[in-house]
Design brief:
35 strands; 10 helices; five-stranded mixed sheet; extended; 33% strand; 623 residues; Immunoglobulin-like; Rossmann fold; alpha+beta; single chain; nine-stranded mixed sheet
């Protein structure tokens, strides 16, 4: 027994109001007097009342109000379905990357689809099913229906994605299945026992673990090196419990740079070196040997161009100028860097003046300097930078949030120094935020493309060698990631699957996905289209005669381990929890609203009959 909305018990205050009305009426009794003594004073009768006497009408009204209150609160009972009435089922599917693993002649999602089809076929006529899927989020793919053809079509449309199956998404999927008498969960890894226990309190849960083979290889990382200077390296790992051959190929554009077959021992990780590359460009590494998951057999990287791009670094602090120059050379050793004090800098003019590709301004803004890429570090209060970035104040210290977004994964919420309170425009992508005194979330790193070129901002100060301090590697990693994004070519974006990507376009854009699916996406008011790559591979965005390639790498090579368990205790305890849930008889929610309303109406009818009887016997004044 339970309540769907206990907040509606506030209507139960009507019971207290009824009691007050009756007590008020009893405190002032009615005295009958002769009409001839209308203006004479008569003492009220004195009566000693030890107990409050309440007539049957009071109890009938109490019953009516109580029944209506319970009906509004949603009183229900869990009971087995009545004979001849169909039960409600929920089919919940994990669509994370692991479900795309090859299993026998198909994939794990094929096995799950086959098991679900058998459950539907064996169910009695009249049983209804809903189809729910989850990965990054939970989605109801088909609502409750008894139409078997629609259900089979919904099952056929399920496609795994190269993204993680989040625990929060599983919880949301089970919440969407609330109200079903039976839930069938299909996943390649057992969930935490607490999740099954929460959902199993109101429904019977059947967990179907799909797949058993753990034979999988994965490219863990790809570093192209510096063209003409250092060798590149590729890290490959065998996640299976037996030896596995691996045929590797690495291409630079259309030219093959590396091709080799190696044997990896069980759980072994190996490094393959190649190069140095002669020129920069797009690097594509592939595992040609067949294994369980295809998405982690391909990885993209971009080798920096060997062209000598001109970079200008402006800062009132000489030590900061040197630190930023070192970081820029670590990003691209071919940069030609000039440094200057902004108070003394004079922008070159004339036909022989060479433009800068990148300008970095720390604690200053010089509007006379124009470049295709501008990075503002600790921008001053009075900066009129024309990019829409405003500065609202400064705090003495801030901490990078541990849940900061972006490519950086080494952020440990370590303290920063002085930090500007900036407001970034909507067309910029927020990479990281921080907390500070009186501020729960402060943007500290953002990047975007405007009409004049790429613009980035770092809100914290980098004085006192912050970027080179060993205890502040989080700030250095964030700065390097931001610089890499800003200096990457505009027509090539390398991202992780599941990440939000914005591409500058003219009007609408045609997006071609890795499976050759074509769709049209409208641009927002800032002239961008947003896509979210859910499959690994190449996405092409075409607009206004310009083509941008978005290359999605598998989100996390650690998730390529098909034998890993997401929870340390999720083996035997999960089975016990599922068994305990399955031991319950299949029950479903049965609201008691109709019964309670009928009871309230019956009480009103009885009360009306009693009032009519009183009126017929004693007259209307006794009613």
């Amino acid at each position: 027994m339970g309540f769907l909305n206990p907040q509606n018990f506030v209507y139960g205050l009507s019971l207290a109001l009824l009691v007050l009305i009756y007590l008020r009426s009893r405190s002032r009794p009615t005295i009958e007097v002769s009409s001839l003594m209308l203006f004479d004073e008569a003492p009220a009768p004195v009566a000693s009342v030890r107990h409050v006497r309440l007539d049957p009408l009071f109890w009938l009204e109490m019953l009516t109000l109580a029944a209506l209150t319970f009906a509004l609160a949603g009183l229900y009972v869990m009971r087995p379905p009545l004979p001849g009435h169909g039960r409600s089922h929920a089919l919940v599917f994990d669509l994370g990357a692991g479900m795309s693993a090859h299993e026998g002649s198909g994939t794990r999602i094929d096995l799950a689809r086959q098991q679900a089809t058998e459950i539907i076929d064996q169910a009695p006529v009249g049983d209804e099913f809903s189809v729910i899927a989850y990965a990054l989020e939970a989605q109801v793919r088909h609502p409750q229906t008894a139409n078997r053809d629609d259900l089979r079509k919904a099952l056929g449309d399920l496609v795994p994605m190269a993204v993680p199956a989040r625990t929060a998404a599983l919880r949301a999927a089970l919440i969407r299945a609330h109200g079903s008498s039976e839930i069938d969960l299909f996943a390649d890894r057992p969930p935490a026992p607490a999740i099954l226990a929460d959902a199993g309190s109101t429904a019977r849960i059947n967990f179907h673990q799909v797949g058993s083979d753990d034979s999988n290889l994965a490219i863990v990382s790809l570093d192209p090196g510096i063209p003409g200077s250092t060798r590149g390296r590729l890290v490959i790992r065998n996640f299976s419990a037996r030896p596995h051959p691996a045929e590797l190929a690495i291409d630079l554009g259309d030219n093959e740079q590396f091709h080799q077959t190696m044997m990896l021992a069980p759980r072994e990780q190996m490094v393959a070196y190649f190069g140095p590359l002669k020129t920069g460009g797009l690097i594509h590494a592939r595992i040609l040997t067949s294994d369980a998951i295809d998405a982690d057999n391909s990885r993209y990287a971009y080798a920096p161009s060997d062209l000598a791009a001109r970079v200008l670094v402006l800062s009132p602090d000489a030590a900061v100028r040197d630190d930023i120059a070192r970081v820029l050379l670590a990003v691209n050793a071919n940069f030609q860097i000039e440094t200057a004090d902004p108070a003394k800098y004079v922008a070159p003019s004339g036909p022989d003046a060479m433009p800068f590709e990148i300008v970095v301004m720390h604690d200053c803004y010089v509007p006379a300097v124009k470049a295709a890429t501008t990075l503002l570090i600790y921008p001053p209060h009075a900066a009129k930078n024309g990019s829409g970035i405003s500065v609202d104040g400064t705090i003495a210290s801030a901490n990078i949030r541990g849940d900061a977004t972006g490519e950086s994964t080494a952020l440990n919420s370590l303290p920063l120094g002085a930090t500007r309170i900036v407001a970034v425009p909507e067309w910029m992508d927020l990479l990281a935020t921080a907390t500070g005194p009186g501020h729960a979330s402060i943007p500290i790193a953002a990047v975007g493309s405007a009409a004049g070129g790429s613009v980035g901002v770092l809100a914290f100060d980098v004085r006192d060698h912050l970027l080179l301090a060993p205890d502040h590697l989080d700030a250095l990693v964030l700065t390097v990631d931001l610089m890499k994004q800003m200096t990457a070519p505009r027509d090539i974006l390398i991202v992780s699957t599941g990440a939000d990507v914005s591409v500058p376009v003219t009007g609408s854009a045609r997006v071609t996905e890795p499976d050759a699916t074509l769709r049209t996406v409208a641009a927002d008011k800032w002239g961008r289209v947003r896509i979210r790559p859910m499959q690994a591979g190449r996405y092409t965005v075409e607009s206004g005669g310009v083509t941008t390639q978005v290359l999605a790498n598998y989100y996390d090579a650690a998730e390529s381990d098909l034998g890993a368990k997401p929870q340390a205790e999720a083996s035997a305890p999960a089975e016990k929890t599922a068994a305990a849930s399955n031991a319950q008889s299949a029950k479903q929610v049965q609201p008691l609203t109709f019964i309670l309303i009928a009871l309230a109406l019956l009480a009103l009818v009885i009360e009306s009959a009693m009032l009519i009887g009183h009126a017929g016997r004693w007259g209307m004044r006794h009613v």
